[in-house]
Amino acid sequence: MKTKAVKTLYPAHKSGGLELKEAVTMPGIGMTIPVRAAKAKLSALLELVARGQEVTITSDGQPKAVLSPVSKAKPRKVFTGMGEFLSRQPIHAGPLAEEIIREDRDSRGW
Q1: What residues make up the domain containing 47?
Q2: pLDDT tens column, 42-86
Q3: Which of 30, 36, 38, 96 has the maximal Cβ count within 10 Å?
Q4: What is the count of structural domains for the chain?
């Protein structure tokens, strides 16, 4: 896999930018950074990710994790109880449990 070194300034604060010398761009993966550099530059990485950039963290040259922006999740369905669910279930017709047990006992002569 061929890597291309990237030397870019990513402004993380209003007072200036942070330089990520360790970041490289890998074909098919995108921006990558070794885990040690990611630890040291976590704040800058989080700022990049918040702006929409995906960053892959590598260990021993192998991709291990991806930092990606948080997407807006769909609103969750609110639980309103089991009543509506149960009312939509088909009604099972048949003998009651007591009748089945009584019939079984009678057939055995108890």
Answers
A1: 4-67
A2: 998 888 888 888 999 999 989 999 999 888 777 888 888 888 888
A3: 38
A4: 1
For residue 45, being part of any structural domain is answered with yes
Q: Are 24 and 30 in contact (CB under 8 A)?
A: no
E strand segments, the chain: 4-5, 9-13, 16-19, 24-26, 30-34, 55-59, 62-67
Does the pTM surpass 0.70? The reply is no
Tell me what pLDDT residue 56 has.
93
Asked whether the beta carbons of 41 and 35 are under 8 A apart, the reply is: no
CA distance 85 to 21: 57
Q: Are 38 and 45 in contact (CB under 8 A)?
A: yes
H/E stretch holding 97 reads helix 97-108
